[in-house]
Amino acid sequence: MIQGGLSGVGRYVVEIAQRIPQSSGVDLHVAGLVDDRHLFPKTSDANWISIPKRYAKGAANLFWHTMALPRILRQRSFDLYHSPSYRRIIPCCPAAQIATVHDCAPFHLREKYGLIRGFFGRSFAPAMARRCQGILTVSHFTARDIVQFYKIPIDSINVIHNGLDHNTYYPRDSKALADFRQRMGIAKPYLLYISRLEHPGKNHVRLIEAYDRARKAGIIDAPLVLGGAPWHGAETIRQRVASSPFAASILLPGFIEEADLPLWYGAAAALIFPSLIEGFGLPVAEALACGIPVLSSDRGSLPEVGGDAALYFDPTDIDSIVRSLEEFANCKPEAREALCKRGIKQAAKFHWDNAAQATAKAYLKLLGPFATHQESK
After folding, report:
1. Is 295:271 a contact under the CB 8 Å cutoff?
2. ω into residue 274 within 30 of 0, thus cis?
3. Integer angstrom CA distances of residue 290 from 114, 168, 275, 329, 331
4. 191/39 Cα distance (integer angstroms)
5. How far is 181 from 123, CA to CA, in rounded Å?
6. Whole-model pTM?
7. Which pLDDT score is estimated for 377?
8. Which domains does the chain have, with CATH numbers?
9. What are the CA-CA distances from residue 13 to residues 23, 67, 216, 258, 263 (Å)?
10. 97 forms bridges with which residues in the sheet?
11. Are strands 134-137 and 96-101 parallel, antiparallel or unpaired?
12. Backbone torsion region of residue 280, taken as left when φ is above 0, otherwise alpha when ψ lies between -120 and 50, otherwise beta
């Protein structure tokens, strides 16, 4: 589930795992592919479990988690297994098991998944989650979904928001941002969407249609940057970009390394985030922390993350996206500045260190007498 750190789940695993060893009472071991080992410099070799490369993808990876991992847990006498996604819950786990459910997208976006993946997400996953001793999730929105779709009582669910590294995400000075735009060959501030190129769930096609309409109407003249790694349906997005009369102004820089993300955010006129469903929505929090305006979908957890610091629209209504762009374009400088200040205040609520500490506490609480013994040391 680390996936090179390219996905939201992968980021979650890397950030939490790198911080939990600093928390008292937990000796954390990480299982991952050799190609992902470099993402965990703080994890010692003794605490690293290598997944053989032949089990890297799909059904083979699921087989490893179902058959090989339980033997490792039993042989090494682990007390707890944390599955960072419902997709890798162990049906017959020899240790206590806690799982993170990031979203219930298979129930909201049925067209996103094929027959097998849809069945897995809507039937098998809830049944497996009910076998766990504890459930974590990243937003109150997803917690309500878990109650509704998984039939798990709310008092069995621990909401721990995702976080930010505030030493990385903060406002940069105007010269640094101008230099960055010059280095990237982008003449002026742009509209930015950070998301993997996934269709239809990430809603790029409607965003491009709204961008075309706004450009034709003279509402905006900023470039549109769609930053993210290609995923399912990426070719559909590329084809829609190519058919746009403003294709020359729509940039696809690919996956953006985290070291560069704050500059991409800071140099933008605004983040526009039209996703149809998010369990959390890290780019919204990151952009707010970098001090730029955010135009966001009003679906899923995004209003919970953006609070009163974002402008919201209906992501299924192209006219609504256009109206949001017009509202932003007509926003007076003092109102825009106030919006950005609210954004920095809102982003301060999210911190990876806090998320890791809360996760460690959830482990210890779940383990009961063992946790009490560990905390007394």
Report:
1. yes
2. no
3. 37, 9, 20, 20, 19
4. 30
5. 47
6. 0.90
7. 40
8. 3-163+352-375 (3.40.50.2000), 174-347 (3.40.50.2000)
9. 16, 22, 43, 15, 24
10. 81
11. parallel
12. alpha
Q: Which residues pair with 332 in a beta bridge?
A: none
Instruction: Please state the φ and ψ torsions of residue 254, each to the nearest 5 degrees.
Output: 80, -165
Residue pair 50/33 in contact (Cβ under 8 Å)? The answer is: yes
Q: In the 8-state DSSP scheme, what is residue 94?
A: S
* HSE-CB for 199 with a 13 A CA cutoff: 16
Distance CA 89, CA 235 (A): 31
Q: Using CB atoms within 10 Å of the CB of residue 116, give its burial: 0 to 12 exposed, 13 to 18 middle, 19+ buried.
A: exposed
365 — alpha (psi -120 to 50), left (phi > 0) or beta? alpha
Tokens of 147: 């109650």
pLDDT at 1: 81
The answer to whether 72 and 47 have CB atoms below 8 angstroms apart is no
Q: Would you give the DSSP letter of residue 138?
A: S
Q: Give the integer Cα–Cα distance in Å for 316 and 207.
A: 10
Closest CA to 130 of 147, 145, 144, 150: 150
Per-residue tokens: 94: 């020899």
Q: What is the pLDDT of residue 114?
A: 67
| Burial (CB count within 10 angstroms: exposed 0-12, middle 13-18, buried 19+), residue 300 | buried
Q: Are 36 and 5 in contact (CB under 8 A)?
A: yes
Spell out, as residue ranges, where the chain has pLDDT lower than 50: 371-377
Q: Are strands 191-194 and 80-83 parallel, antiparallel or unpaired?
A: unpaired
Nearest to residue 147, comparing CAs of 130, 123, 124? Answer: 130
For the sheet containing 96-101, what is the strand order?
Answer: 80-83, 96-101, 134-137, 157-159
CA distances (Å), origin 347, targets 76, 163, 310, 341? 40, 9, 11, 10
Residue of 75, 193, 144, 170 lying closest to 304 (CA atoms): 144
How much of the chain is in helix, strand and coil states, percent to nearest 5?
50, 15, 35
List, in sequence order, the alpha helices (H) in 7-163. 8-19, 58-63, 69-75, 105-108, 115-119, 125-129, 140-145
